[in-house]
């Protein structure tokens, strides 16, 4: 039977996980109809990061563990470390475009708005050029 301390620790860790999940999805509820390509691509990247993170968390749940010797605090610490590891892997995968989901979503959204791939590339190049000029002007 679980001790009262373990129940409290378990409850606190679940509340923390729920808060993290809520904060991770909070930015995904924004309307992007009138946003720039940069903002739209950033939203796609955040979705890809969240998606990959959830895949890793699901994979971690399939690992069989002997938790009989693990105390409540070490279990919470391990869970926290695993969540942070999944977040970091997802962040790095998105930054390096390892699966390219964000780019595919972005291009599909633009095609749904009636733009071709060439128009998308030209507009992104124009936005990069404008951003580079603004950065150069600030220096």
Structure notes:
The protein has five helices and no strands. It has helices at 4-26, 37-61, 72-95, 101-112, 117-138. The longest helix has 25 residues, at 37-61. The termini are far apart. The chain has one domain (4-138). With 139 residues, it is mainly α.
Comma- or semicolon-separated keywords:
single chain, 139 residues, mainly alpha, 5 helices, 0% strand
Short description:
The chain is mainly α. The chain contains five helices and no strands. It is elongated, with a radius of gyration of 21 Å.
| Structure classification | mainly alpha
- What level of helicity do the residues show? over 70%
Q: Provide the number of structural domains.
A: 1
Point out poorly predicted stretches. none
- Strand residue content: under 5%
Largest sheet: none
Using only CA atoms, what is the Rg? Answer: 21 Å
Number of helices: 5
How are the elements arranged and paired?
Blueprint: H1 4-26, H2 37-61, H3 72-95, H4 101-112, H5 117-138
Helix pairs in contact: 1-3, 2-3, 2-4
């Amino acid at each position: 039977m679980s001790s009262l301390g373990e129940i409290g620790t378990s409850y606190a860790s679940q509340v923390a996980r729920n808060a993290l999940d809520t904060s991770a999805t909070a930015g995904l509820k924004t309307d992007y109809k009138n946003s720039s390509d940069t903002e739209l691509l950033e939203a796609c990247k955040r979705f890809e990061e969240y998606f990959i993170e959830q895949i890793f968390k699901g994979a971690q749940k399939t690992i069989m563990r002997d938790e009989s010797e693990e105390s409540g605090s070490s279990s919470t610490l391990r869970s926290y470390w695993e969540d942070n590891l999944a977040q970091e892997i997802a962040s790095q995968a998105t930054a390096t475009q390892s699966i390219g989901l964000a780019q595919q979503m972005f291009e599909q959204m633009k095609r749904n708005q009636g733009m071709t791939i060439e128009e998308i590339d030209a507009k992104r190049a124009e936005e990069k050029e404008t951003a580079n000029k603004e950065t150069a002007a600030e220096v």
